Amino acid sequence: MSLKNISFTLLAALLAAAIINPYLSLWHRLIELGLATFSPPIFATFIANSIEGHRHHHHNKHPGDRKIANICEDFPPDFPPPDTNTTSTICVDRNGCCNFTTVQSAVDFVANYSPKRTIIWINSGIYYEKVAIPRNKQNITFQGQGYTSTAIVWNDTATSSRGTFYSGSVQVFSNNFVARNISFMNAAPIPSPGDVGAQAVAIRISGDQAVFLGCGFFGAQDTLHDDRGRHYFKDCYIQGSIDFIFGNASVKFLSMHARHAVLNLQLFLILEKFLQNCQLISMANPVDPGAKGINGAVTAHGRTSKDENTGFAFVNCTLGGTGRIWLGRAWRPYSRVIFSYTTMTDIIAPEGWNDFNDPTRDQTVFYGEYNCSGAGANTSMRAPYVQKLNDTQASPFLSVSFIDGDQWLQYYI
Questions:
Q1: Which of 55, 123, 279, 386 lies in disulfide reach of 93, CB 3.0 to 4.6 Å?
Q2: What is the pLDDT of the chain when averaged over all its residues?
C-alpha cells in the first residue's frame, strides 16, 4: 500500500472516530489505529510531536468563541526575513502559511548555482514526498524544528525504484548541503535478512562538503547512503538493521547513538565520513541468549582501492538496540571503518566484523577500534584482521582533518 493510500485510509477512520468522540485527540486516535507499528518505531514520535504542535499552535480558541481561529494566525507576519548579501530564507509549511507547502517546490525555487546560501526553513510536520536536490542547487540548508518534529518521509524500495541507489526519500547531489534539526525517513516495511529488493534508503548523499547537525535518519536496510564526498555528522540519531550506513564517502560521525534493530547513533561525519557524538540504533530482530546467528550490520563501506581517501570514522558515539550484529562488513575489498571512544552494548558479536565471506579481503580491509567501551567492545575474540589501534594509529581518525574539515567545516559549525 502506498503512503497516499495509507493516508486516505487513516483519514476515513479518523473522521469516523471524530464523530464518535470529538474530544479524543488526533494523536490518540492514530495510536489506536496502530499507525505507530506500521513502520519504524520512531514514526509514532513524529506523529505525536507533529499533531501536538499542530493542536497547540493552530487550533487556539478565544474565550467565549467556539470557532477555530485562523490556522495561520500564530505564524510570524515578518517571516521569512529579508535577504542579506550572503543568505536568502524561504519557508515551507504544509498548511500554506508561508512560501511553499512542499519541500521539493522550495528546492526547485532556488536559483541555479547560487553563490548565496539558501536557508529552507521547514515547519514542524511530516512531509510525505520524495525530494531531490540536483547538482545545480548548491549551498542549500534544510532547517527543521527538531528531529522528532520535522521529517521528510517516503517509502520506495530497491524494487519500486529500480535500484537501491534510487530509493532514497531524499537525494542530495549538490555540494555544500547542510541539514539541521530534521529527520529523513524511509517508511518501507522492515525486511528480513536475505529479502530481495527490500533495501530502502532514507537519504542518499552524493555531493561534497555536507554537514548534518542534530538530525535523525530512520529506516531498516541501507538507511543512510553516504555515496561519495566529504561529510560531517554531529549529534545525530541513526536507526537501521542491515548495512544501515553504507557507501564510499569520507565521513566523520561525532557523539552519536546507534542501535541495531533500532540503532541509535550519535555521529560526526567528515570527508571520509566523520561521525561524532551520534547515536546508532539497531532495529534487528531480538535474538535468544547464546544464539550465534547474525541478523544485522552497522556499516558496509565501499572503498575499492587503497588509493581512495575514504572511510567512516565514529568518535564518541553510542551503539545499542536489538539483534546480534557486526560493526561492519567488507562491501568492497578496501573497506575502511574506525570506531573510537564509542560505547557498544552486547548486541555486537564477539568477532565484531565480517569480510563479506571473502578471505582475500582480510589483507586489504582497514577495520580499527580505539578506546571503546561497553559489553560489545571486548576485542579479545575479534576477527584476526581487526586492528586494535594505539594512540599514533588512531590519531588521523580523531579530528576533522580526516575529511579536510579544517579547510571548509568552520563555515557550518
A1: 123
A2: 82
Architecture of domain 80-411: 3 Solenoid (2.160)
pLDDT digits (tens, 9 = 90+) for 284-305: 889 888 788 899 999 999 899 9
- How is the chain split into domains, by residue range? 80-411
Contact 293, 255 (CB under 8 A): no
pTM for the full predicted model: 0.83
- Amino acid identity at 352: G
Check: CB of residue 133 under 8 Å from CB of residue 167. Answer: no
Question: What local confidence, expressed as pLDDT, does residue 401 receive?
Answer: 84
The rounded distance, in Å, linking the Cα atoms of 70 and 220 is 39
